[in-house]
Amino acid sequence: MSDPLNPTSLNRRSDTPPSPVVLRPAERKANARRWASVVRRWFRETFSREQLVSSLRSLIWVAPLTVLIWIYAEREQVEPATAQFPIEIRSGAPGQVAHLADSRGGTVLATIRGPKAKVSQAVEALQAGAPVQVFVGGGRQPGFHDIEIPTLIEADPRLRDNGLSVIGCTPPMIRVEVDTLREDQLDVKIRPDVAPLLNGPPLFDPPRVKVAAPASALDKAKGAYVEADLPPDQRSPGRHGPVSVRISVVGLAGPDVALRQSSVMATFDVRDADERLELNRVPIKMLITQEIADAYRVIPDRKFDLSVPVYGPPDLIQQLRNGDLPVKPEANFSVTSADVTAGKVTRKLEYVLPEGIRMLNQDKKEITFTITPRDGAQ
């Protein structure tokens, strides 16, 4: 027969927590000793001599590697930077030239994006190095064109080879002038300061030289020519040549102007060395219109120029000394209508000398004159 149900047990909740287990003092001491033994064993195994040596060996190469990885990550961090640098315009088509036609000049401000270290190096190279060459694509008609330049700047090796990009540019567009490259022949002439050393003009072979330049520049050039110089060792008196002499273009300038040859053959006759003669009194003459002379009184500070050095061949210097030359040395100055209100004017003297006699520019003097209205002049 089963036991009768206990009413108390029926009313007890099923989730009632069990009563705590109370350990006796002996059991608590045994548990403490067991855990202390586990901790000591873990400490001996973890911090043994072998474990410490192994950890130190790992640290020796892991720590530097970690630092290098951190430095690399820092250097490869993508950051933009700005750089200001000059640009040069070039044509990418044969037979054409291009140059900047923008009045704002050839300097741009660009924002460059890429790895931090490479951007820093590129900015320094752009600002301290050669101008960035911007190549204008071919197929354009001669005239003015507006072109976008950020992608053209990116083609510079200092940016392209480092994988850098231009994300902004001021100005973003520039105006360029495209022109046709043309060849013309120019006369070969001796340098003006060398001509007095020669007895007559030299003979050049060839007498004309081909020059390549923009068509518009050739059309505008007036009096352009090819200038020849004499080597210093070929300036002794007597006959010389044919010898090679270097040439350069006068009256045309720019990176697109080019000679088809760098020298010509020349035959020339160098006369005897010049002698120096000091002229004691050179009369000064005033050049003035009758209208100004009637209305104004002009008073120069002197009537003669004293101690004027001149140079020429020995035979001409002797004739000048003897007064046998048909042209007598004199100096003159001009009075213009613009001088009448100045009151006092200083002007460089212009000298008239016999043929074959010359002066040095540094020996030419100035004259000062006053100009006042005559009585009754308005």
Note down, in words, how this protein is organized:
It is a single chain. The chain has 378 residues and is an alpha+beta fold. It has three domains: 78-171, no CATH class; 185-270, Beta Complex (RNA Polymerase Alpha Subunit, Chain A, domain 2); 275-373, RNA Polymerase Alpha Subunit, Chain A, domain 2 (Beta Complex), CATH 2.170.120. 26% of the residues lie in helices and 39% in strands. It contains nine helices and 20 strands. It has helices at 7-11, 25-46, 49-75, 116-128, 150-154, 157-160, 215-220, 290-295, 314-322; strands at residues 78-91, 96-100, 107-115, 132-136, 143-148, 165-170, 173-190, 203-205, 208-214, 225-228, 238-250, 258-259, 263-270, 275-287, 296-300, 304-312, 330-334, 344-348, 350-352, 366-373. Strands 2, 5, 7, 8, 9, 10, 11, 12 and 13 form a nine-stranded mixed beta sheet that branches. A four-stranded mixed beta sheet has the order 4-1-3-6. The protein has a four-stranded mixed beta sheet with strand order 16-14-17-19, covered by helices on one side.
